[in-house]
Amino acid sequence: MSLAIGVDVGGTKIAAGVVDENGTVLAQIRRATPARDADRTADTIAEIASALAAEYGANSIGIGAAGLVDEDRCTVLFAPNLAWRNEPLGQRIGRATGLPTVVENDANAAGWGEARFGAARGASSAVILTVGTGIGGAIILNGELVRGTHGLAGEWGHMVVRPDGRRCGCGLRGCWERYASGSALVADARELATLDPARGAGLLESAGGRADQISGIHITAAARAGDPAALECLRNLGVWLGRGMAALAAAFDPDVFVLAGGVSEAGDLLRRPAQESFTSLLSARSFRSEPEVRLARQGNLAGLVGAADLSRAV
C-alpha cells in the first residue's frame, strides 16, 4: 500500500496525517502554529512529518499552506499569516525527512481532496467554493487541478459583481466576497439587528442582546430553529453565491459545484437558495445539464488529504 503524508498549515494550527491511496487518514498529529515565526513553523512541520514517516512509513509529503506558491511547488513566495517570504519549504522539509516533498496552496489542496475523495468524486470537472471569511477555492478541469500562471486561480472572491458597491479590503468596490462570504453574512445580520431590533430579536437573544456579538454560529443556530431573520440572511447569502456561480459556470462549465468552508455548515439552508439562484441565471440552460450544487464532505481533513494525494505525482 502506498502511503503519503499530508500537512495542512494554518495560521493557528498545523495538522499532519498519514493517508492511503483511498484517501483514508490512518494517523494524525496536530500542533499549534508558532506565532509568526517562520523558522519554528518549518521546524514543527519537519518534526511531525518525520515522526509519522518513522512510525508508519511514507513515500512522499504534500504540504498545503495559505499563501502564494511558486510554479515548481517548492517555495512559498508569500504567506503573510505565516511570516513566510520566499521560503524554500519543500526543499527544507525534504532534506529533514529524506522524502520528496511538494507544497501547494491550501485552497487547491482542499479542493483536490474534495474532488478525489469527497463531494466531487467521480466528476470530470468541478469548482470548489471555500466560503469563510472570504471566498476562495479550486478548479478541477478534466481531472486536472488548474493553478493559473501565478498560482492564483480560484481567488474569485475579488471578482467585481457590483460596480461601485461595498468597499473591499483589496481596495476595489463590489467584490463578490463582500456579498457572499461569512464576513458578509455576519455584517448583514448585525445591520439587520441594529436597524430593526424587533425583527432581529432572535439573533440578538442568541448573542446576549448585543448586535456586535452576532456570529455565523449564532445565525446558523437561529436559522435552524426557524428564526425568520436568520433564514433571510442565509437566503440572501445564497442568492449572491448563486450569482457568482453562474459566472463561474460560464467560464469553466463544471459538472458540479461544492460548497466548503465554515459557512457551508448551514447545510441546505444555504445550498438550496444558492442552487435556485444559480440555476435561474445559468446560461444555455436548454442545451446543457444543470451542474449540481453539493455540500463538502471532507470537512477539515480536505486539505490534509488533498495535499497527500497531490504529492504522489512527485
UniProtKB/TrEMBL annotation:
Signal sequence residues: none
Any single biological process term in GO: glycolytic process
GO molecular function: ATP binding; glucokinase activity
Family, per entry: Belongs to the ROK (NagC/XylR) family.
Pfam family, one: ROK
SUPFAM superfamilies: Actin-like ATPase domain
Name by which UniProt lists this protein: Glucokinase
Keywords: ATP-binding, Kinase, Nucleotide-binding, Transferase
GO cellular component: cytoplasm
Biological classification of the source: Bacteria, Bacillati, Actinomycetota, Actinomycetes, Propionibacteriales
EC numbers for this chain: 2.7.1.2
Record InterPro entries: ATPase_NBD, ROK, ROK_cs, ROK_glcA
